[in-house]
Amino acid sequence: MLDLLATIKADIGDLDKIVSILKLQGVVNSDINFALQPVVIDGASELLIALYGETGKHARTITTTQLAGQFSVQLDMVVELRE
Predict the structure, then answer these.
(1) Calpha distance 26→73 (Å, rounded)
(2) Measuring CA to CA, how many Å separate 59 from each of 32, 34, 39, 49, 54?
(3) Which residues on adjacent β-strands are paired with residue 26?
(4) Average pLDDT, stretch 30-56?
(5) Is 47 exposed, middle or buried (0-12, 13-18, 19+ CB in 10 A)?
(6) What is the pTM of this model?
């Protein structure tokens, strides 16, 4: 999540332009027997809520699959920005 926020900041210049977090999608590279994918993504969700309070609460989608490059987690986020 920190890397994603840094990418957004580099693009828009100031994270204070984020009005709300609309959606977070997390993909967890895991074994078929692993069933705790939501717990893996909880850290990202909890950080957004800690940083943005009520406006940090968001819809969330979690999937499990094999990720390219042997990454363990991939995040995708939709935010609303102030102009």
Answers:
(1) 7
(2) 25, 23, 15, 12, 12
(3) 62, 75
(4) 93
(5) middle
(6) 0.87
The pair of structure tokens assigned to 80 is 């609303």
| H or E element in which residue 8 lies | helix 2-12
Cβ atoms 25, 76 nearer than 8 A: yes
Query: Smallest Cα–Cα separation from 58: which of 4, 11, 7?
Result: 4
pLDDT at 67 over 80: yes
Mean pLDDT over 57-62 rounds to 94
Q: Which CATH number fits domain 2-81: 3.40.50.1000, 3.40.50.1820, 3.40.1390.10, 3.30.1330.40?
A: 3.30.1330.40
Among 25, 27, 24, smallest CA distance to 67 is for 27
User: Token pair of 34, please?
Assistant: 């692993």
